[in-house]
Fold this protein.
Amino acid sequence: MLSFEQLELSFVNEKAKVLEVDRIKSLIEADIESIPNHYLDACFDFLFGCLWIRFTPLFEKVQQTL
């Protein structure tokens, strides 16, 4: 999530941001049973906060991850 936030929101970095959301999704799906709930809550809040970025490929990826 920190890597995602460090990237500036622009067309140049959009692909990198999509890949970061994919990484978050993969990490959660790989071992959701052993992730503490407070980490899952933080991920949910982070992803929900990303939904303000509408009309980009990132929006659809965030929706799929949620």
